[in-house]
Amino acid sequence: MNATEGKNEIIRISPAELPIRAMEMKEKGLRLSQACAAWVKKEERLELSYSFVDDTTYDIFNLRIELSDKAAEGETVKEGCGRDAEVASISGIYPYAAFYENEMRELFGANIKVIDPDYHNKLYRIKEETPFVPKKEGEAK
Amino acid sequence: MSKRSVIPYGPQHPVLPEPIHLDLVIEDEKIVEAIPSIGFIHRGLESLTDKRDFNQMAYVAERICGICSFGHGYGYCETVEHIMNVEVPDRAKFLRTIWFELSRLHSHLLWAGLMADAFGFENLFYQCWRVREKVLDAIELTTGGRVIFSVNKVGGVLKDITPEMQKMILETLDFVEAETKVLKKTFMNDYSVQSRMKGVGVLTKEQAKALGCAGPFARASGIATDMRMRGYAAYGELDMEPIISNDGDCYGRCEVRIGEIFQSIDLIRQAIAKIPDGELAAVVKGNPNGEYFTRIEQPRGEADYYVRGNGTPNLDRMRVRTPTFANLAGLCETLKGADYADIGILVVTIDPCISCTER
Hints:
Oligomer: heterodimer
CATH superfamily of chain A: NADH:ubiquinone oxidoreductase Nqo5 subunit
Strand order of the largest sheet of chain A: 1-4-3-2
Largest interface: A-B, 39 and 44 residues
Distance between the termini of chain B: 42 Å
CATH class of chain A: Alpha Beta
Structural class of chain B: alpha+beta
CATH topology of chain A: Beta Polymerase, domain 2
Order of helices and strands of chain B: EEEHHHHEEHHHHHEEEHHH
Shape of chain A: globular
CATH architecture of chain B: Orthogonal Bundle
Strand order of the largest sheet of chain B: 1-2-3
CATH superfamily of chain B: Cytochrome-c3 Hydrogenase, chain B
Structural class of chain A: alpha/beta
Number of strands of chain A: 6
Helix content of chain B: 40-55%
Helix content of chain A: 10-25%
Largest sheet of chain B: 3 strands, antiparallel
Largest sheet of chain A: 4 strands, mixed
Number of domains of chain B: 1
Mean pLDDT of chain A: 82
């Protein structure tokens, strides 16, 4: 009666690691199932998740990038992992990642660079000002 | 070289079932490129996690879309159940499977009608929706709703399907099966219908794979992927194989969906024959704390659900990646090189659900 679950792993990586890790996933024959952003209010952290799936075993490998200007107690913010840290697009590796990355940048303010095609924050035609996540301290409204 | 023009298509257009905008770059009558934009019905449902607790979010998830409603509620509940380690009773798993397949039946018949309308066969459109009404009647009898079922909850289901209702469902299935056999002959054999679908909007298996396509759209290009094979709900107890076509064109997509109507009928019959007695829902205590990704097979293809709980009634994040979002890249590819007159058919063949896509 149990479902075939497969692995459901979350692999934490730095923004700089994303292209090479995505390339590894591609070489293994994994499919990019989805990519999404999440704003974790309590920790004031932006999380980007890229989900790669194996269609034969149903395994899911989620590459997780955590971006925050707020360090945990006793720690400092890791270099290149601040809220505005640049994340290189993987649309050159997985062409359809462009839609997910345009969405993450437009709605969540992720600083994803060199998306191809780049919709310049016009994929969603909505009246409300985006991104929806809270602005940084000192940032103009 | 012909002059290039850009023609805006949608969001309001007689052929479009829901609002999507396409900027079509054309040379004479041929499409060179299609640039989509969405968001006309973005409602911010995912952000309601701030205001609604995780139990109420099951109802919010169901309202993401009127056609894939049951699947969204199910996908959300299954994800939360994983996080909370809730073991759903076997009877509830079978009930969910029956409703899920009834939902797929009415969705595919709805699509068949829209497709007939798109290629100008109005009578066929009426016939498809006439058959669909009987499926909606069965859903109404068992859930009280025709489109939004509201029977899923975290831990199980809220309603039962009695033996009398099961008998009525089986009678409905006999009717739908007989009628769909007649409809199939027209869709698959009629010369005029074939002339609008065969060889139109071809997407090869390699292209479908490279563009991350999902559901019947991918299966029509020969990719044998179907999340039901994962065995969630009661699918692990039922016999099924993904239905595929190797044509990759509009005809192949039609063939796959019509085949899936008969497959759903078979799955419901199997589920009714095997449904065990038992409880409808497990007791759920506490609040979700953790995160999980789940994938299920909606009528339009693989849908992904991500839930992140923080130990309070309000979730940090609820995310839905819908099949139509995954199929946007494939749609743009099939439009390249197509005749302007075929746009309506090509858009409908991915069975777009824009309400789902925009949440």
